[in-house]
Amino acid sequence: MTTPSPLARLLPALALAAGAALLPAPALAADAPPVVRFQDYPGHGNLLIRVARSKGWCQAAGITCELKPIPQAPLGVQALIGNSIDVAQTPIEVLASAVLRGAKLRAVAGSAVTNIFQIDAAAGLALAHEGEGYPALMQDFKGKKIGVVARGSASESFFAWLMQQAGHQADDVTYVAVGAPNTAFAALRQGQVDAISSFEPAGTMCEVSRACRVVYRGATAEKPALLRSMYGAGVALVMRAQQIAEQPQIAKAVVKISQQAADFVNDRANEAEVLKISAQYFPYDMPQGDAIAKRALELGIDSNAYKAMVRRSAVQSTLTYLQQTKQLPGAPKVEDLVWDGAPQE
């Protein structure tokens, strides 16, 4: 029996919560800048907003930024619909799932716009075709145990799609739920799985510890071609359409501070300050944590992840990918997902 994906399991909750989007935002004092509550994550998380808040750019743009830790994108979308936060940080696929079920949400700015997934293999795992890269690499995983965030998760769908695009069957491997990057890394290091389909800082932890290695990184991969065409619409900052209509100045402020922060983060001269700012929100409290944090940031910059854009053609490619992987029962229109004021580049 096929395990329903987290997106599929999220649909009923989104349908019930959609009505909450009609609730008015909390009243604010007339002389106070509006408080805008952003979703944040472990790791470097919502890095652009962390930087904007710490540099005082939120106040300069006429808003007060607050960061609310919510560790999963679907939970962030539910919190957004329920008016517990004002801006979710979510992949386009989670946004599409919500909109398909009637939620009126729009991406207003980019946050981490490259593909987040990667394949990390145990140090001792022999991969005869590793040097050839994708797609030849995928045949070496046949019969292996592959760790994924959860059964039916986006990370499983990603690995299965790579197998299929390489001419193999999705079930030529055994999928094992191993959780987020920290627990996935532990499972890989302890030999519970042969490889993992995960995301940063898993790869950085592999590199620093040498217990495993990155053999495929979605953020920089050239193949499959569809994956490459999805660059520019990975993870976005998402708001309720009603709030955008009623308070367009807030959406414009979110775009402005995101662009300012992206320029700052991508300037190598600011690396030490960016790391210091991020650590104030989430310290990498683990062995060699400083080295892991530094390397994870460098990888994001090198792959052009930290951009404020929402490239419409990339959104359309993502919708095509979701249809191919059967993660959605249908496909919304790009204009139903992206605010017309969101920056293209």
UniProtKB/TrEMBL annotation:
InterPro entries named in the record: SsuA/THI5 (IPR015168)
Residues of the SsuA/THI5-like domain: 50-268
UniProt keyword terms in alphabetical order: Signal
Name of a matching Pfam family: NMT1
Signal sequence coordinates: 1-29
Gene3D superfamilies xref list: Periplasmic binding protein-like II
Name of the protein described by the UniProt record: SsuA/THI5-like domain-containing protein
Species the sequence originates in: Comamonas faecalis
